[in-house]
Amino acid sequence: MGVFLVIELSRTYDFLRQRPNASQEAEPADLEQMVTEPSEIEADTRLLEPEPINDVLNIFTGNHQSLQLSDLDGNSILLSDFSGKSVLINFWATWCPPCLEEMPLIESYAVQHEDELVVLAINAGENENVVREFAEQHGFRFNILLDPTNSAARKFFVYGYPTTMFFDEAGYIQSTHIGELNENLLVNYLTTIGIGE
User: I need a labelling partner for 109 at 20 to 30 A (CA). Which of 21, 33, 57, 120 fits?
Assistant: First the structure.
């Protein structure tokens, strides 16, 4: 494999070396000027710097505000509907054992802090009937939302389940946890968003 890689790199180098391009014809002075003076392209890219991370990950503004999901009753839910409350978003699936293990714990804190904490359990692309049967079997009281195309998971860059995100009352993300939560972790994360202080 290593020999093949060396041969391919050598061929690529030879091919590129034989190609004429503008930089081969440039005078040394021109090349030096290109290195020491910023080009117009560099100046333009400075205008395209990403937004600060907190602005990107604010669920009440920006590209998450318009994220619309349905609950099991067919109601459309916008994340901006919960503006002014602390929000726990849990990405989960019925086929994920750690997701199922942590749900009763999340449920207990959702009930305990129902006036100040919104819990949104966003399902990872499963069929509505599967999710409904699961919800009826377990009787959880927090909001279970359907994400049949995984659009929410993609928007929040979720790559593993469960993933839990904690947003303060202003909508800014304070913590993200990938994997199963235990009580100590959950209490600590909730404290970062003003719950149980």
Answer: 57
